[in-house]
Please model this.
Amino acid sequence: MLSAKLQRSRLHNHGHLLEVESPFAGLARVGRLFVDGKQVDERKVWFESARLTGGGVSVIVDWTLLNQMTRCVAIPAGLDEKTETEIPFQPLVGSYAARMEKLARERPRLYASRHVAIAIVQVLNGLFGIGTLVVVLLPRIELPTIPWREFTIPFPDWPRTFVDRIAIFSWILPDLSLSIPD
Model:
């Protein structure tokens, strides 16, 4: 079930109160940025992160598939998002983001293993889906029969005779033949 609650995160930055709220908007995700109680930016996205600007910062907001905010960070104006100067917002007590932040802080190994377990399940899910397609659809496809002709390539005899003289290494060179269609 999709989360129907209004979610808010707060950050006090250089004397300004920055708030990000995410109301329920169906499958779309809406992020609103407030600076000192006034709305300065709003973005509606589908499955990507939202980038909100205002108050001298850029704010990046991420959501889960169930529209719960997971990450809300501010990046000072003029800096790239790949730098280490992210300032995290404080999520509301009891929200999903607050629970994940508490888990990361109190049990970092469990939090990290959660990501590994999710990745393993995603890979197994993909393999299972592809395997199901192959098992179900491949027998139903009629493939034409190709008449193959027997064709052999003669190899020189001297390597075989040399290896045959050394009985220990006779298993290295197998008999080779090649089949090619017309």
Remarks:
- The mean pLDDT is 79.
- The helical segments are 96-106, 108-137, 158-165.
